[in-house]
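Hi! If you just cloned this repository, the fastest way to understand the data is to look at a raw example. We've pasted two of them here, unedited. The first protein comes first, obviously.
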Amino acid sequence: MKNKGIFEGENGVLDFLTPQNNGFTPIVELPSSINFLKKEKVKIFLKLNQFVPLGNIKSLPSFEMLQSIPKDVLKNTKNLVEYSSGNTVLDLAVLSRHFGIKNLHAIITPDVPENKKRILRLAGANILISHGPPSPAVFEKVGGIYDAEILGQKKGWHNLNQYTNIGNKKASYKYIGGEVWQQLGKNLSIFMASIGTAGTITGAGEYLKKKNKNIKVWGTAIKAGSSIPGPRGEVMIHKLGIDWKKTVDEVFPTDTKNAFKISLDLIRLGLFVGPSTGMQVYALLALLKKYKNKNQLNNLRNKNGEIVCVAIACDTMFPYIDDYFSVLPAKFFPKIKDL
């Protein structure tokens, strides 16, 4: 039973983990130290989805996908298998137990760092190593996505496949798009998200455009030659299972250093967000700058003469702490000195 933030009884934990029971996540406007276009009546907000249960946005589609498993299938499922080394399998490892599934198997590639393996094992995930490509195409018969599909056909096993599962997009339609609309409403000009499975940007984007066809949906992918945890590269986004192209108006590629640098700036403001959030803010600012240079900013203004933007904070910086120190120069970090 939920009462003033209290979740009690035998199912108290499950009630807490259920998305609709937790209210809206915060939306926070960024200051001029980040938003250099503030004087141009550009407002940039972050929707802090690390404040959902389990601390990351993937808990929403994970719950939705589990909830959509037919009862007869769920009853006979003892092993859940998914290709992911990040938040999806972290969340499924926890949530699946509440749905009666004893084991979660995370298929990862050999390049996944040891600290991420430990996080998954801490949550109780079993790890399986696939030696296929680290970013496989969704429908090709090679790599971890295909491996998960094959294992999911075994008796007592099930593969949700976040790359094609309708619950992925559906969760963002309800919980991201629906909340953003109620929080910012008709004032919203631009919705920005990174593209990983494309569930967030497509689901939320569809909802927002249904409410106001003038809202722009902008995406960002990893620039070729770069690496950022979570999203996909600018080439591989064209090989996804969710059709994002009908919803997304523009995509801007972001490099590793700029994603981590903006994330660091946000962390030092007190917003403990990960590099995929820094990636979005960087891409958003880059696209706004492009419009400004072309004297096209006015095309983005709402009826109040403002350009109201929102990007999605997907998780925290905590799983990636070592990465900040390897990606960014030492000058960004205070030195350690003996007294």
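Ok, and the second one:
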Amino acid sequence: MAQLSIKEAWELLKQYNKETFHLKHSQTVALCMRYFAETEGYAEEADFWETVGLLHDLDFELYPEEHCVKVQEIMREKGLDERLIHAVASHGYGICVDIIPEHHMEKILFASDELTGLIGAAALMRPSKSVQDMELSSLKKKFKDRKFAAGCDREIIEKGAKLLGWELETLLSKTLEAMRAVEEKANNESYYEK
């Protein structure tokens, strides 16, 4: 089974995704996943976690109705590692597939994917347009306001916290910290082009 470098994963992502929004989301999630690997005791797997983050929505732009299903087919055709396929597909658990997130990394991806979108939307509402000065209390208010970033499914985020055995506040806090740590790289559109 083939292993992908981060650079190869980025190139694969760009084959199936052209919209800046999707590429930026994948980049943000990937960098957050690397941060989580390094802070949750999996530093030796940081490249793998980042690769999973990059590829988690590989099929979404072209195949939104087959999200997390089509990606398995695409990745198997390319001879990619089953561990990578499981990790990517499991973030659709209970939404579009029945593949349960088992590894700590898969649970973090499931829990933080939607949340990075919510935090990103909240940052855009701030005068600074940044997460650097965002307080946890402010994020909690945005989370409770179901009209704000209505496309971000709060139930998935809550379910993700439970899967991890974390309080919701812990998940919000850790993901906000991750986004603070990676914001500069995540906002650099040519970060993976080097």
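That's it. A detail worth noticing about the second one: The mean pLDDT is 96.
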